[in-house]
Structure formats: structure tokens, C-alpha cells
Write a structure and sequence with these properties.
By secondary structure, the protein is mainly alpha-helical. It is 59% helix and 9% strand. It contains 9 helices and 3 strands. The chain is globular.
Amino acid sequence: MIPLSDENPTRRIPAVTVTLIIACIAVFVYQFQQSIKGGPSFTASCGFIPYEFLTGKDLPPFSCVTPVQATILTSMFMHGGFLHLGGNMLYLWIFGNNIEDTLGSRRFTVFYVMCGVAAALTQTALTLFTAPEEIGIPMVGASGAIAGVLGAYLVRFPTARVRTLVTLGFFWRTIQLPAFLVLGGWFVLQFFQGVASLGGSDTGGVAVWAHVGGFVAGLMLITPLVPRRQPV
């Protein structure tokens, strides 16, 4: 199931959501340019490497920020390919505007960062537990933070209608589904992929536990962060 849009209007322009999308696209263009030029890996420099975060030791090529732990933030603006970027930005655009509308721009920014950090730390913990030899591999992507947005949307707008592309082999159809079915189904898929990875199943380089951690963080954080008086 691929969400295409939702029937959930907002009261204001989602400035932070739009800014995040523009920033991620701009960083990806820069990544692409650097990959063409060759030289030190931009992904290794600005991506989140659990070993660096835990030890404070900067592995070559050296980090693009100081302290090295700050790559947990820079990595949220990087992506591993066009599909990775496109999928993340689609989800952020559809669901992020309503969560920003609910929280207000400042609280939404804090919420987004907190979910991204929770996602990275969740993946780090599971990596240490299941595959400690991989703690030197960079992680990139806004997926964890956006997963938090999805969790928050599930809490706040479970019955909102989401126009969804359903694909089953050669069967393609666009239908309206409630958000709890679309987002709940997405989370269940991520969770079971994560569980399967504990048994050695290949997830194609996708940090599925970051998705799980970000989603759960969004579920937990959204209610405490909602202002008593809605932002105007």
C-alpha cells in the first residue's frame, strides 16, 4: 500500500515540513554531486555511525560536524538513493503537515528531532545486540523521524481518509482507506521485518528498527507535546 494523499485539511502553511523537504532534496543533490566527483565519502563523513557516537572517536574520513555525535542530526537530511528520498518525502508531505498544524512549528521541530534521535538510538541498540560487527556502518535517512510523524498521525487522526495505491501483482487500484489501516499496516510490516532480521534475515540494508523506534517515539511523544491551546 502506497499512500498518495489524505483528506485532512490544515489551517496554515506547513513551513517546517516544506523546509525539511527542501533541505533533504538539496542535501541529496549535493551528495550526488560529491559521488560523481569522487574523493572522501560524504555519507561516511556526515552519516550516523554508531561506533563514533558511542566512543567519540572520529573514523576517517573525518566527520563533517563537531562533536562527532552531532552526525545523529546531519544523517537525518541524507538519503541512500532516489527511491529512499522520494518515499520519505512523500510520507512527510502527506502526514507531516497535519502534525505540524497540531503542534505548531516550534514544537513540531522538537518532536521531529526527538523521533529521529530515538530512531537512531533504537537501531544502535539492536545492532549492538544482534550484529556488533556492523556498528561502524553509516546510517542515513529521515525515515526514523518520519516514522515518528506516522505514529503521531495514527494517534491524532486514526480515521482520516488516505488515498492509497494498492498493488497486488498486476492488480493496481487507488482506494480510500482509514489512516489506522494504512499506518498500522506499515508499522506491523516494519516490526516483523525487524524481528526477522534478528534471525539473520537480510533487510536489504534498511534500518528497520529505526523505523520501529521512531514510530513508537511518535506514539508516546505526540500527546504530551500538544499545546493546551492550539497554535494560531
